[in-house]
Amino acid sequence: MTNSIDDIADEAKAFFIIGSNTTETHPVIGYRIRRAVKNGAKLIVADPRRIKIAEKADVFLQLKPGTNAALLQGMARVIIDEELYDAEFIKNRTEGFEEYAEKIRAIDLNEMADITGVPAEKITQAARIYAGSDPAAILYTMGITQHTSGTDNVLALAGLATLTGNMGKRGGGVNPLRGQNNVQGACDMGALPNVFPGYQPVSSPEANQKFSEAYGAKIPDKPGMPMTKMFKAALEDKIKGVYIMGENPVVSEPDICKIKDALEKLELVVVQDLFFTETADYADVVLPAASFAEKDGTFVNTERRIQRGRKAINPPGEARSDFEILCKLGLKLGLKGFEFKKPGEVMQEVAELSPKWKGITYERLEEGGICWPCPDENHPGTPILYEEKFLTGSGKAQFKPVDYKPPAETPDQDYPFILTTGRSLYHYHTGTMTRRSDGLSDLYNVEKALISKEDAERMGLNENDKVRLTSRRGEVEAEVKPVSDLKEGIVFMTFHFAETCANQLTNSELDPVANIPELKVCAINLEKV
Fold first, then answer.
1. What is the structure's pLDDT at 334?
2. Fold annotation for 417-528
3. CATH for 5-177?
4. pTM to 2 decimal places
């Protein structure tokens, strides 16, 4: 997030939520937004489903799955045509506006309306609210990123925020809400194929030398392979083993029949997790890990806030903290730099090697969380990014025009429906933890395929009828639930249930830049069993 939760909740005059079922997947932030709206803030919601928070929206944009960029281009066209942009901000803090504006002016608003299924009048209304509210905050999640055009979607959002001067100011910004605890921290610590901790490129000679010296080994200067390409590489004999931590790809990855084939072909599969997952069925070695309450350390939340985690109870049986497991494994392999005795020593190394974290110590974190960047121990942290300059050579924001690209797979005669996936309020991702809760399972323990009431009536389907969903990659059976919050031709499922796994159907085609699969759009057929 470019801004903090408190900042946008208390200061924003308008919220633009797109690709995020905020009240169900981020209920604390969703509550804060609802309270702000009750106190007078405006709300725009864009989603293929009429989600709960859309009930509070001043304008709801029910777009077709995979058409986010077209919607955002349409809004930008209105803002430029009606001169609702922030000319002073553009002049002083941006570059490339004329090229961007020329590209946007060539867009036909009515064409964008046809592509998205959202009337041009509603696109215009949303653009006027967003541009006319100072400040306005954008919030999004994987409904924006899990597309073959995910990078373009994010660039289009950044373009809107830059166009209206909503960057580097209180109550504004572009704010991706992280979908899982410490996802932000994992990225910060280099759990990406192309960067060291602190987002220092592995290709940078200075950074590479620094980390090679610190770790006592020469580190390759070429980016590694993203996880989304590893299983294909395994099928091609390019990878012989995988070490899987806190991930359950047999349920969470697209086209899971291929994932299972890859895991069976690998020479070594190690799974490190709290519970014996569906992926652990394929493991040669299972390492039982401790939960958050059973270890010391730090977490980084969605607003970049580093926070202390404190051990409350001992882990059961042979379970150990990830820190202990990795250090012992490193020493067994004869590697240097794994002699840490406690997590605070790791934090000290992080501060020494990563400028963004240089001012973070356990002693300071005892007083409360700190948002990075924090360049020295006297620095208070940075709740709002880009207040003075952007991280470009010139220090100015760069406008990047994009083209709308349709999803990799669209409906046809054989597969006339679009499947889109998401989460529910009651379960989390693949249900590794939440489905072991009796209380949550009592509330929601059977996967439902949500379809429009119009489609249900046309096909003679009643609630709890069994349907078969088929894509080019596989098929599943599920109980059907007709709802009023979907348009005809759209089907929604969660991916919490291994026994009714929506990801047997989903498409593994990747965004060419971010290498994220198109989990949010695939073509399927639907028939009564």
1. 85
2. Barwin-like endoglucanases (2.40.40)
3. 3.40.228.10
4. 0.94
